[in-house]
Task: structure prediction
Amino acid sequence: MTDAFNNPYLRDAVLTAPPEQLQMMLYDGAIRFAAQGRDAIEAEDHQKAYDALTRAQKIVLELINGLREEVDPPLVKQVSSIYMFIYRKLVEANVNKDAAVLDDALKLLRYQRDTWSLLLEKLRAEQAQSSSPPPAATVQSPLPAASGARPPRTPPTAETGYRPISVEG
Result:
């Protein structure tokens, strides 16, 4: 069982969070595990570094798997390239126990998280200004919360346009 299902608070938070909040949780988790990996590299605790960086890698893979190319192919291609770069840096840092390489990945993860946060604030402000919330079909993001296991791809739900998230360590 994963930590999310061993921790009732975390499990409930994941199961009840809207898709955009799940995306934020993925960024937070990737940053947290990468930072733990960095601390472990500096402490020369190779097993702890491996475990933390492997978890960060899995989260970045979830971010990649959650991209929805059909919404905006050029944007998804760019974001996918960023995620793949982050993933490669996490792997390289893990293999070589290199904190400097890991700093590159952490910098980009933090930037992506900050960008996502700004987007959510902007959407909330726009929704607050309008008298009624826009229909779900008009507010589609190519960057949903992570998808379920592949293959097969889980189709988006009618209400949100997002696929359910799978939660791994």
